[in-house]
Amino acid sequence: MALAVTDPFIKLPPELRIQVLVSTRCKSSISRIIQASPVMLLQYLSHKKSILRQVLAAEFDAEMIQDAMAILSFPSHRGSGDSPRHKHLSELIRAHLRAWSNSQLPDPLKGKDDHMVGQLNKLHGRILLFVEDYITKATASFPPQEYLCLPQIQPPSTEGYLMFKGLKVTPRFSSANLTSSERKRFVKAFLVYDLLCKTSNVTHIPSKLRLRKVSNAEYEAVGCVHSYVCSLYGSMLAQCNDAYLPTALAPPSLQTQLFFPIPDALYFDANVYAPNIRLLSRDLGDDIGAGFSTLGLDRLTNFLRYDMAKPDERKALDKKLKDVWKFGAPSISSTWDMHFMLLLASKEKYKNGCESSLYNQLSLKPKEKLRYKIGQQRAWVFFDDSRFYPQESTERPTFPSERFLAEQPVKKTFINDWFDNLRNEKD
How far apart are CA 83 and CA 110, in angstroms? Predict the structure, then answer.
């Protein structure tokens, strides 16, 4: 009772408490409020369904609802091995995608389907966790080091950490610090990317599908998500094998141990940590991260549930990833942007007025190669300004110029030599 007396919200009438919660338009902000205020917690629990619907309605525009529903109600591949069932599944998927392209999928926020609203909320929460992990890495002082870490997803936490083999390394960024437009850019890009993964089998794409027109900034945002997802597979493979946490990120109790540098001081390359997988199937291509990334967010989440603090679990995950690569047929025959063009249409100069200021300022191009990749790992398309990035210096710019990169000493590390060096150092 003493806590309730000091609760500033106790003096507000119930309708104003609800209005305060809804006005945040952000689930992370609501979580903070109800954790700090017992009165607001009781108010939230009493009107959870109504509050949740209003907050989700603010977080999702009409296109995002269609993307989310396309993901949540996507026809299942289970039990479709034989030819008749496979044909029937293809027909279901084509009909599903036509409904999506014509914006005909049901909006659960406008109906009474509380179960589907709950599913939408779970999908949104999972995406926000990835968004927060991505931003933590993208805005780090030295991103290639923090990209070695993985998000803490089990148990779920509103204030999680970036983890390295069970060690808490960096507090996770809170999406409550984003503007509404920034949060929508991130969530929309993750939704589109996950939908592309579900439609990676081009035989299921209907002919003459009506393509959704999107801006070039939205196209680039999906490319950034692809880069981030690839990096997570690199992080998993790194932690499963010989990689160690760089000294700069190590907890004080471990800084006296031997740590190894990362191969590149500017860019985290997921494929550096996958030599053994490449040797299993050289004919399948070289971009290991891109191959795994097409498996989608469901499979990615399942992989991230392994407890990396336990050597046995790391070994099990390593074996699982190798088995999936060898027998699970990850799609590497075509790139994410090829799938993009089957569902969406974009032109390089097309804008819709929702572009971020940083996108307009930087205008990075794929032909810039390393600079472009660094920009993707820095999440260059999403932010309204540079407020989350560390203070720049001449020696370490946030977005290095082509001239800066050209003047840096080139260090090419062949993958097998890299791991040989690690093993030799440990012997």
Answer: 38
